[in-house]
Amino acid sequence: MKAREEDKPIFFSCGYSTCHWCHVMERESFEDLEVAALLNNYFVAVKVDREERPDVDHIYMAVCQAVTGQGGWPLTIVMTPEKKPFFAGTYLPKHAMWGRPGLLEVLSMLKEQWDQNRDKIEEIGEKLSQSLRPQTVKPEKKGQLSQATLEKAFSQLLHDFDPAYGGFGAAPKFPTPHNLLFLLRYWRRSEDKKAIAMVVKTLDAMSRGGIYDQLGFGFARYSTDNKWLAPHFEKMLYDNALLCYAYVEAYQCTADPDFARVAEEIITYVLRDMTNVGGGFYSAEDADSEGVEGKFYVWSHQEILAILGPELGELFADVYDVTPVGNFEGENIINLINYDLYDYAAKNNLDINALESQMAAAREKLYQVREQRIHPFKDDKILTAWNGLMVAALAKAARVLQREDYTQAAEQAVEFIFNKLTAADGKRLLARYRDGDAAYKGYVDDYAFLLWGLLEVYETTFNPKYLRQAIHISMDLKELFWDNWDGGFYFTGHDSEELLLRPKEIYDGAMPSGNSVAALALLKLARLTDNNEYNAMVEAMFTCFSAEVTHYPRAYTFFLLALDYYLSAPSHIVIAGDKEDTEVQAMLALARQRFMPETTVIYNDPEYQTDNSELIPVAAGQVAVGGRATGYICENFACQRPVQTLEEFKQYLEK
Which interval of the chain is the signal sequence (predicted)? Predict the structure, then answer.
């Protein structure tokens, strides 16, 4: 007799659409009739996309890590009907192999134990569930986070830095752009050249490696080796957004045109391949095509010669590390790890301009041939959180690189979010949109990342509409997610589905946490609007998370961006005058091209004079003197006299 549904344990599998081993387990097991019969007869089978339901994923990934000492996807959990877990693992083949238990054997064993020892299993589930509940330890006093915390994080990053190839730690290597954003700010604060040297080395090495698509642009998720040569080939929107932001800031700090080029190429990739007709951005591209990981991206030596001809083909192969033996499973990943074009030209006594022209033509020809291959699967769902990150990157690149088309793309994406990813009553952001369907109440990441994006768009356009939207989102963020007792933001809103527990995340992994991004955005909003309530919230967050962050600050580098900002004295630049005035435009361009992360730059546009007076108290009264372009510079709680020449404005900035 079949068990009643309410008496069956729940078999839960969590993965994501571009996950290689999720596809393998799906083909081997979930599409297999024998496995399906066992699951359907004795379990309630649930399969979840972790990117649509990160709340569920966070909770049960913590279970897996607690039980097995590691995590990953596909995530496999078996739990009681009350959703209390008693088994956890990751990928399970159909039958035991490679030292891993087989899914059929595991399911049979669990069914037998459920039938014979249900009380014992429910006791295990209860104990596991209780162990997940946070044991709150309040710091003894406020203000435990300080400049010493920044210094400790720098020391830890320096210790883990790979001087040969950049990045931190051993393989596999993840880009983790917020480490680099932190180091740039540490360099500005301390003038320690080792900090910026780590950034330059890492960004240069990544852009020359196979983790970067040398033909079609964009970064893969991580490198399986320490050289950045062989990636896990899937491309994620969030990685490319954050890396674009990091390359733009590195360009501000170094004026290296290669950093600007890479940022522009990332945006070319996103706008070309990852943007829907309405302006929203897709989530990811798979690592596999035709069932083989990386097949779309790799080349044989023979292919290169056949497409480019023997002379250009041999030159390209020599430059881009293409050999008959191959550098990846008998094939070749195109890369510039051995030397860049300038090194190669110098070594071989070639004209650099001619070499660049030849290589550009060769890359374009190979790209066009590659376009005829079967493409990897594209995950075309649109996530509010990841779109918020891409909006921030586009807006930052737009103002630094002076690209109006990037501004338009950022604004279009914001419009898409508010039109398509907002509940019908207009009171709630939703997390996911696909094929006309928007679903799932937004998580803290959706609100925090969008808030950051809106502030970046405001700083690029100076349109008060975006500042008003940011203020509105900040109010919803507090109302839905704020912990009134201990501070910090819960991952889910108070109106969301009740789960085993309500997590509060601060760890900055491949993506920064919602709390970290919210802290920085709220501080920026505080300085723009002169609303000290935002500062008070972030101070409560510093208290809430200080024990975790102080223990190992290098794991919270985006949160430390907020701390660095908080510890910096307020600094404002207000530029006033007619937007068509070339002197106004030149002042804005100068201010935007400089790396001044602690400085708020405001354009007091006469068109928005009333809005600015209402929203931005610091801009009140700071208008064009005598109808001429005027710059106001205030720092360390003091304002300089207004300046009205570009040369004088430049001198103040250089100070």
Answer: none
Whole-number Å distance between alpha carbons of 112 and 89: 19
E-assigned strands of 237-390?
A: 284-285, 288-289, 292-293, 378-379, 382-383
For tokens 């109808």, name the residue: 627
CB of 399 closer than 8 Å to CB of 383: no
Structure tokens at 418: 């508010």
Residue 597 Cα distances to 185, 626, 632, angstroms: 7, 31, 18
Contact 542, 568 (CB under 8 A): no
**Which residues neighbour 378 within 8 Å (Cβ) at sequence distance 6 or greater?**
273, 274, 282, 284, 285, 286
* Domain boundary residue, one of 78, 103, 132: 132
Q: Rounded to 5, what percent of the chain is helix, strand, coil? A: 55, 15, 35
Average confidence (pLDDT) over 33-47: 89
C-alpha distance from residue 291 to each of 376, 396, 468, 473 (Å): 9, 37, 47, 42
Please give the single-letter amino acid code of residue 49: D
| pLDDT tens digits, 374-397 | 999 999 999 999 999 999 999 999
CA torsion through residues 184, 186, 191, 197, sign = negative
**Residue 495 to residue 484: CA distance in whole angstroms:** 15
Q: Are 252 and 365 in a shared domain?
A: no
Indicate whether 77 and 62 sit together in one domain: yes
Q: In what order do the strands lie in the sheet with 85-89?
A: 44-49, 10-15, 75-79, 85-89
The amino acid at residue 654 is E
Unique residue bearing structure tokens 């008998």: 330
- End-of-domain residue from the set 76, 103, 132: 132
Distance CA 449, CA 387 (A): 8
Total domains present in the chain: 4
Cβ-based neighbour number of residue 70 at 10 Å: 9
Q: Is residue 379 a contact partner of residue 282, using CB atoms and an 8 Å limit?
A: yes
Question: Where in the sequence is the domain holding 356, given as residue range(s)?
Answer: 297-372
Long-range own/partner contacts, residues 1-7 (CB < 8 A, 24 or more apart): 2/41, 3/41, 3/42, 5/44, 6/81, 7/81
pLDDT digits (tens, 9 = 90+) for 538-593: 999 999 999 999 999 999 999 999 999 999 988 999 999 998 999 999 999 999 99
Question: What is the token pair recorded at 366?
Answer: 């190979």
